[in-house]
Amino acid sequence: MGALLILPLRQASELHDGKIRKRVLVLTEGVMVRICRLLEAAAIQAIETEHEHINLGQHKGCCDKTQ
């Protein structure tokens, strides 16, 4: 699994979207370690579900546990 952690997703994620940025800030309260964990969890879910990108619709519930 170590190699999996350094490989990029195959498709561009929608992290530039204002709605996603706002959701990230709400879920993490702007705490950097929480932001990193949230993005890591979303990326893992994207790989496991074979979506290969992060977007608001597919990953709404993936990071609620990181709070």
Can you give me a brief rundown of this structure?
The protein is mainly α and 67 residues long. The protein is built from 2 helices and no strands.
What does this structure look like?
By secondary structure, this protein is mainly α. It has a domain at 32-62. It has helices at 18-28, 32-48. Helix 1 crosses helix 2 (32-48). The mean pLDDT is 78.
Indicate the topology:
Elements: H1 18-28, H2 32-48
Helix pairs in contact: 1-2
For the termini, the CA-CA separation is 24 Å
Helix % is 40-55%
Spans of 5+ residues with little confidence (pLDDT < 50)? none
Overall spatial form = globular
Oligomer: single chain
Strand content: under 5%
Instruction: Work out the radius of gyration.
Output: 11 Å
Q: Major sheet: size, sense and barrel closure?
A: none
Number of strands: 0
**SSE order, one letter for each helix or strand:** HH
Rounded mean pLDDT is 78
* Main structural class: mainly alpha
**In DSSP terms, counting alpha (H) and pi (I) runs of 4 or more, how many helices?**
2
Write out key terms for the chains shown.
mainly alpha, 2 helices, single chain
